[in-house]
Amino acid sequence: MNNSAIACTVKELFQNFNRDSFTDACKYYVNTICKLPVSKANCDSWKDCYDYLEKAWKGKKQFEPFHVLFEYKMPGANQRADVILLTKKKVIIFEFKMKYENSDKRLNADVFQTINYKSSIENFHKETDRRNMEVTSYLTFTKGKKARDTSVPTLFPDDFEQKTNEFIAEQLPMNNTEVQQWINSPFRPLKNIIEATNELFENGNIPTIRTVKKQEIDNCLNSVNKIISNNKNQKNIIFIAGVPGSGKTLVGLQTVYDHIVNINNQENELLPIYLTGNRPLANVLQQTLSSDNKPESGKAFIRELSDFKTNYTSYPTNLVVFDEAQRAWDGENGRTSEPQLLVKICDDIAKKYGRITLICLIGEGQEIARREEQGLSLWPDSLRYHSDWNIFIPQKYKDAFKYVYNVKIDNNLFLDTSIRNDFINVSPWVESLLHCDFKKAKRQYIELKKQGFKVAIIHNPEMLPQIIENVQNNYPYDHTGLISSSHDPFKYNNFDKEIFGSQYSGSNIFSNNIYNWFVHDSVSLKQSATEYDIQGLELEWPIVTFTGDYYLKKDNISGTTKWEVNPKAKNINGLHDASTVLRNVYRVLLTRSRKGMYIYIPKKIHNLDETNKILSSIINIY
Q: Residue 572's closest CA among 486, 484, 483?
């Protein structure tokens, strides 16, 4: 029983343990089994917890048959839930705090911890999911009385017994076998893109699709496979769209995998191609899928767009998945646009192999460079006179494709649930920030906190190494590192070292090095990944840096606050609409997190004062 210090019924708790032996058992588990130091404060908390429960539960017949767990180990982190009470249909988590509700500035962290435990068990604990158990969590104070709302349910000495009695009313206790199954049940946390891709090609299944709330992705995959398998369709183009972090990339990879398996089973030589214009993403996926003895094997079906455009005749295929298709380049100065070129290439493929399906994955509002600014509109323009194609789109693109032949609507092709942040959708909050609806953003952030999403603002470079240390100590399997805009006005300038520290060498990560940065080097704080490096990827705890290229400014006459583009921002010349591109850049940066994020607003960059004021008013709340 290595997942908790003590697991027993309430009756057994007070029969088999007194205050000291209970404390010793918890101390032994944390120190010897978990290999973590135990302080006097820890021991005092365990004694306080025992006294509290003894007063509320001992000798009360209604509590005695129910099992209770202490120091239950959470996945992927050096964290443990203080107390869990189990019934056949409920998981009730108590996070004990030996203090008065208003007595500690760490209340924010306590609230987040309580929410996070609930979210982890509710979303990723296999046995909880299998038994369809209700999960609740309570911040439990052993002193004082309720003084204010904390955005999570709270319990106090004067209501603990009454409330827990209500929790177990009409509930049945688990038996010993069921409790052991629950304790030993695995967690299936969402994997980042590298781990998920590896597991997909090793085991044939995306980890995120095995978790709860999977129906949306399954429906999308079913629609795609139905279209591909329809032998009447010679030429198909499928547009899959969704909010940031909704799983578009993983759906594309699963489709490629499914058809590789079909090819192997049928001994068919046509290999599906996963195509991306994002060179860093291509590099990460290629290295992820390459083995030690075959370092180039990942390139067999992960291709860069630039290579495919030139050498497509070398790749026998009739299925192409094009990720980030909204970033396809326009036909500037009379040149053929990339959508036009890809449609022509796919026409050639259909002539040679009899059929073709092109799947375009669309990330909305993520056009981040010159020649990408027209986004989705390039695709209907390229298909307008191609009546021999079958075109499948979600309902929301109906108007964009109204002049195109053979358009079919399939709402399964839009993914509107984010799986990146433990199914917490941060996109509406980011949109409110970027469109200056700050009252709405504040209301949305309060709700995000209740669900377990956490943001912290920092201002000094001395905090950066502390963040790295905190993540490595508390979340040893998680990723963190600096991410920032490529338009940083101080790029190639020694002032960057004042912002990020003397170790900093810039944001120029070569695309063939992004895999190494992501897996190993990000914690060194030597380099920052830009929107080009990180689009399509994700970190559990990114440090999103505002560098003054895009900032909030208050108009002293009208009193309104809006985003401004710094004329000194790098690489903005030639953009048709610099403001939209910079907004898209920060949309990408602010939606890369999987658990929470740090927002770094350096004090030394003076045009960020209003940005800091507004964001602090939204985020620094209980």
A: 486
The closest alpha carbon to 319, from 284, 354, 344, belongs to: 354
Task: Record the tokens describing residue 549, joined without a space.
Answer: 């290229």
Query: In the prediction, which pLDDT does 210 show?
Result: 42
Contact between 202 and 233 under an 8 Å Cβ cutoff? The reply is: no
Terminal C-alpha separation, the chain: 37
Closest C-alpha to 452, from 87, 79, 36: 79
235 contacts 356 by C-beta, under 8 angstroms: yes
Higher pLDDT, 200 or 65: 65
Angle between helices 427-434 and 438-451 (to 10 degrees): 160
Residues 307 and 353 sit within 8 Å (Cβ to Cβ): no
Per-residue pLDDT at 262: 63
Task: List phi, psi (to 5°) of 408.
Answer: -125, 135
* Element holding 248 (H helix, E strand): helix 248-266
Comparing 278 with 209, the larger pLDDT belongs to 278
Give the type of residue at 99. Answer: K
CB neighbour list of residue 18: distance below 8 Å, 6 or more residues apart: none
What DSSP designation does 540 have? S
Strands of 208-355, DSSP E: 235-242, 273-276, 302-304, 319-323
Asked if 419 and 193 touch (Cβ cutoff 8 Å), the reply is: no
∠ CA 579-582-587, nearest 5°, is 125
Confidence at 261, pLDDT banded by 50, 70, 90: low
Q: Is the pLDDT higher at 189 or at 525?
A: 525
Residue 530 has pLDDT above 80, yes or no: yes
Burial letters 250-262, b for 16+ CB under 10 A, else e: bbbbbbbbbbbeb
CA distances from 461 to 310, 466, 497, 569 (A): 45, 10, 9, 21
How far CA 311 is from CA of 308, 314, 316, 371, 460, in Å, comes to 5, 6, 11, 22, 49
Please count the residues of the chain: 622
Position 495, amino acid = F
Distance of CA 277 to the CA centre of its chain: 22
3-class secondary structure, 186: coil
Q: What does each C-alpha distance from 596 to 193, 247, 496, 525, 592 come to in angstroms?
A: 17, 18, 25, 18, 9
User: 80 has which bridge partners?
Assistant: 73
Mean pLDDT calculated for residue range 539-558? 92
| Residue 92 per-residue DSSP state | E
Which whole number is the average pLDDT over 59-67? 95
- Other beta carbons less than 10 A from residue 186's beta carbon: 10
Task: Give the rounded percent of residues in the chain with a pLDDT score beyond 90.
Answer: 46
CA distances from 157 to 91, 140, 145, 422, 453 (A): 21, 9, 8, 32, 28
Ramachandran sector of residue 211 (left: φ over 0; alpha: ψ -120 to 50; beta: rest): beta
Q: Cα separation of 147 and 435, whole Å?
A: 35
Query: Is the Cβ–Cβ distance between 58 and 12 less than 8 Å?
Result: no
Residue 117: which residues within 8 A CB-CB, separation 6 or more? 74, 79, 81, 93, 95, 137
Give, to the nearest 10 degrees, the angle between helix 40-57 and helix 19-28.
130
Q: Three-state SS for 304?
A: strand
CB atoms within 10 A of CB 328: 25
CA distances from 249 to 196, 279, 532 (A): 11, 15, 16
Residue with tokens 């002293």: 556
Query: Residue 74: how many CA atoms within 13 Å on its side-chain side?
Result: 26
